[in-house]
């Protein structure tokens, strides 16, 4: 009876999670249209707020002197974003049209993602490294804003109703809060359910890592594809990944981070370079992301998980 109650609760919360994501997506489109800001850029800003769970985990880990947890969570989370979540989106939505004009922006973002790995090659992220990561985040945000401002149509003829804009912005904020809170509830319920079914702790961790702090991004991305606002789903992933690096920089400002020179760290570098290279190739080829390419991304995610677990149990 307890298990059935948990299952019913999970279904109800997933429904509410979808509605909360819809609230964000519907109103952020209104904000973009009224202010003449492209959805792509708004999605990048949205990605920062859907990364608030990572921020909470990172602050808690730093305070408790286990900053290695936050490094793994933040950098590993980027692999989850662009392999599991992007791959799943492409598979579910078949062919996804891409925009070659955004290729340079995507390349710069991926270089930014890799930067902490190279800064941390000396096994240490200092406060200076933190300043570099935060400064480059702000520069990249400004560059992306400048790009969308240059490309957008003239907004001189737009009639802006302040009341409606304010209402839409407040609804976006409300939707974001609900997405983050309900995602956390879903993860807790899922953990209880898996434990009730006597599933091995190893597998529980594997499943929760796939969802974990990335559930808000998963929900916003999937609902964006369904509502045919594809720019929002991709830019939300980009914004969330950028926010992860910003958070890493912020944490190293609070307290310098020592990185364990483990095999898994070098494995992470390899997978991130491989993943970003493939995404760039897929993004440019045929001006679309296809279902076979989505399957490749999901395979990379599975391989990444297996390799990280192997290093953890058999090598490190």
UniProtKB/TrEMBL annotation:
Ranges that cross the membrane: 6-27, 39-59, 71-91, 103-121, 127-146, 167-187, 199-222, 234-253, 265-283, 295-315
Pfam (any one): Na_Ca_ex
Matches recorded under InterPro entries: K/Na/Ca-exchanger (IPR004481), NaCa_Exmemb (IPR004837), NCX_ion-bd_dom_sf (IPR044880)
GO biological process: intracellular calcium ion homeostasis
Chief location category: membrane
Membrane topology: Multi-pass membrane protein
Record key words, sorted: Membrane, Transmembrane, Transmembrane helix
Keyword Ribonucleoprotein among record annotations: no
Gene Ontology CC: plasma membrane
Subcellular localization: Membrane
Molecular function terms from GO: calcium channel activity; calcium, potassium:sodium antiporter activity
Domain Sodium/calcium exchanger membrane region: start-end pairs: 7-146, 168-306
PANTHER family: INNER MEMBRANE PROTEIN YRBG (PTHR10846:SF8), SODIUM/POTASSIUM/CALCIUM EXCHANGER (PTHR10846)
Protein name in UniProt: Sodium/calcium exchanger membrane region domain-containing protein
